[in-house]
Records
---
Amino acid sequence: MSFAAEYIAQLEAFAARAPLPRVRALHLPPERPADDGRHGHSGHPRGEFCALELEDGSIGLSYVLLDDTLARLRADNGLAAVDALTLARRYVEGQGIDRTLGFVCANAITRCLFDRAGFRPPNSGDSIGGMDPQPGERIGMIGLFGRLVPRIVDAGAQLTVVELDESLAGEREGWRVTTDAAELETCSKVLSTSTLLLNDTLDRMLGHCRNAGWFVMVGPSAGCLPDALFARGVTLLGGSWVHERAAFLDALERGDKGGDTASKFVLTPDSYPGFDTLLLRLA
């Protein structure tokens, strides 16, 4: 079963316990020049993500710069009062814009579950998830996180970045970018963008990382239930936790970073109680 199918099955089990809030609105970043932020894995600049808000204030986030997703969302954004679970199922059943809408709604439902169960993931104190790069260590990166490259290279590690964009491929000073995911097979640690959850490359990339004892997935899109990811070998999931809803949404729509309206969190198999435990806490 795919990650998407497992994820939605969990949300269906949650919905069977109690009615879910309906969709309130989809919030989009402002329009920018076509080339602004296209290679935004380097720290997730403004304009890469949308936020879907449920009627109880729960918010989910998703990357929106795949293909023409953002342009199509601007043209068709009539989601007010839509049934949340029905929309979330598009993550499994749909393609393109439908898959993105399903995913971001699923993430909003996850936040609803966490809140109702009284679960708050611990804050992250490290942008590279405790990687601790060592001299000579082979480290892989899926998606170019440009601002994190110096921390890895300066430590003396050998960094290989896997990108889908062929225009980024080539040798750099102390590191390289390739489109060949097979090069991840010799890496002991891998840092990945959470965009894998949207572009149908998750299982393929994880298949090339069987020799990695450390696989971290980070990004605002990573606000999903982690059970099926941990079962596949992900060792840490790092996402964004919105704690000032109105100010966060206002900043997103203006193209601002949002300041202290959200913080980064981390989930590991040790810090996460598990989906079944969250369901038990609902009572």
---
Amino acid sequence: MPLATPSRHSTRAYAKRATRALLDRCAAPASWLEPDLRAGQSGLRAKATLWAHGKKPLIQWEATTPLTVYTVLLLLDDARLSLRSDTHEVAECDCTAGSYYVSRPGEAISVRCAGPCRALHVAAPVQLFWSGTEADHACFSLAPSRDALLLQLARTLLAVPGDIGEGPLGTQVMELFVDRLRDLRAEAAPRAAACRRTALPNWRLQRVDDYLKAHLSEPITLNDMAAAAGLSPMHFAAQFRTTTGYRPHHYLLLCRMEQAKRLIAEAPHSMLDIALEVGFHTQSHFTTVFKRLTGKTPRQWRDETRRPRLS
């Protein structure tokens, strides 16, 4: 999620200039709005809420994006997050304020935070996010990134008296927020289109997932995964990485670790039994890989998951 960014001073200056320019556009006639978004769309509005988490041990937000909207999660402060999309880990890292993720309609999102966190959550109707007939055939998430202007607009929204995004000024700032999202979507669309052309079809990916679930305790090779998808190993590896962002072997390790976490949380299995169940020959190798991918040993994970949580 965190990206290489300019200095704080230059970032603030850029955000201030960009916000001023957008506010000037907002004060002018509404010609800057896309015509097809003005026609017949007056009842459609983006809605924002503030998600806040104090100094509690752990919190997890889970939601499936409705089929009629895109949802945005924008960090207002620095925080450490684990972000999961559907069945895939997207990111687990220290994120800076202004980091955001836009989930597509129908996408299941899970966010875990182990410390203080504030985020703006925005639901934007599909018709506002896309213009014209584009919404009929385009559907993709905006991968974790950072945008200084979105952060500036979010903070402006929270500074406006009253409910978030309500009232004349709040409504204007919310429109600017969605307008910026459309700019980011337009920048990402060519990359998404290129990915779709070389991505692994969902039915092939599902066959690979089914194969992994059925054989997780056994040795699994690249050839095995490619055969499950019905492709040559070379084509499978390239398409799989385009689709998931992971090399096949890394994805296999993540699947083994997710199953291990479930076994650790569900029942008092021995660590050796869990290691064998998820395809490791020795407990020491299992512990090494588990700590490398999660930052904790299996026993530390067990202790934390069984610790009583404060509501």
---
Amino acid sequence: MTQCPARLNDSEQWIQATMSFASEYLAQLAAFSEQCPLPRVRALHLPPVQPVQGHAGEFCAVELMDGSLGLSYVRLGDTLAQLRQGSDALLPAGADALEVAQRFVGDKGPGRAVGLATANAISRCLYDRAGFRPDDSSDSIGQMNAQAGESIGMIGLFRPLLGRVLKSGARLTVVELRADLVGQHDGYHVTQDASELAACSKVISTSTLLLNDTLDDMLAQCRNARWFAMVGPSAGCLPDALFARGVTLLGGSWIKDGPGFVAALTSGAPHSEFSSKYALTSEGYPGWRELIRRALGNKGI
């Protein structure tokens, strides 16, 4: 196996045009499973009903038998409530990880969230077996480097990031689903009209796009952006299909201490000491085929 080429060949261009991100992502994980036996599912970890210290408890974690963890957002609709009611039936201990991950392709709500978390856990398993570690990032706005006068787009209102963007003197347009946030605010504009992103040269987006079926539509609206960052704990996926679709930076969470992270997540406590943020670009990423080749070459698989 060789590293993915920088340019897609005709066959790969056809696959990208006819497959969704979810289908393409799962096909890559299936190729990994054909070469290397995957660990089975150990547990689904949910945030508490009443998180402590102001934390929203927005993410679940799926843990595999080898300790690999994958995250997914669970605050869309009643996803979290449904998971609390039926998580054992949805994700029994010892389940086949790839079969559960397939729920990301065809399911909705809780099944889709659990499917993404499981797929992300398999990705972490592949990274570890291949000896690959994305670079840490201390830049909360995805290395945007916003400049005065630039038109910046934000998909989902990231309140903690507003200050840094506005301080640069850039013009900020935020696309939001919540109608109550729409309007002109102090230094930025909130709209539900995604077509306004066409005027933006740089865009930062929440990784919730992976779950709410808006990824391709939003990327199409950002056709004029030369820089598109997707950030958030749900972004712990193989990035190949996202890079091919125009994402230039993927920012996720790298879990350094699995037991500590799980204990913090399930209690609602802060988990920053057990994880770090990372930034991944196509220049620093070897490609999923090369990762599998490295995993096969390492001992102890």
---
Amino acid sequence: MISDKAKGYIIGSIAAASYGTNPLFALPLYSEGMTPDSVLLFRYLLAIPVMGLMLLFRRGSDQFRINAKQSGQLAIMGILMALSSLTLFMSYNYMDAGIASTLLFVYPIMVALIMTIVFKEKITIATIICIIMALSGIALLFKKTDGSTISAFGTVLVMVSSLTYAIYIVGVNRTALRFMPTLKVIFYVLVFGLFVFIVKALMMNTFTLPTSPFSWINLIGLAIFPTAISFLCTTSAIQLIGPTPTAILGALEPVTAVAIGISVFGETLSLRSTIGIVLILVAVSIVVGGGNIHRQLLHIHRLFPRKRR
């Protein structure tokens, strides 16, 4: 019989791997002519009822209530999450999805820097060394073996995505939202984030519709695998093995994206890029596992509402 700890590691791995499937569903939609903001509009639109049903199942209809102050904070978090999603998905048009997902993974280091600079938390020597390791990894990824470089604009997009996600994490943990069940936060973040994509698509005339049943399959896949399944498995893993191991298992997110890029979309990976990816993953894992940063990254364990009996 499998122990709870083993189950936790398995479920945590599934959570990270499922989130790494973003490129698997997004890139085919791009090839069919859909724009990143339209893809995300449909992703959020399809994910909202799924998350709503999860919230209803857990605690009942009373859990949907929010006050004016919470609405304002959730709106800001929704905008941040939407910007993070949009810049990441835009970056797929400028660089390999696996590289983009790896660069995104530096967000825990950005959280650590925000907590040090803004909230005056003490930074350790180990964190400084890890920051240097991560920057070295980024430098290796930025310049390829043949002397060419990856897209500077694509790199900026991913760094903006990582930064806005880091700000979102800190914001949720430093406002009254930290007392709100995480599932409820995610539901309203998706709701408010949806309006960002609606407004952008209408104002810039970039709205595109799915053109085939295959498009709808990919959109549903985005709503289910890297959204609902990833969230549910992350929550279960935290309850079984705790937040730190679950956060470290998050390293499987970019690894999955890299594997998908190579096996499905024919992306290539040089030795130089491999070393860069490893440096980033090791640096982030040490930062997450070596300090209190996991409390900022994963506060779901304490706040997630349990199912009514």
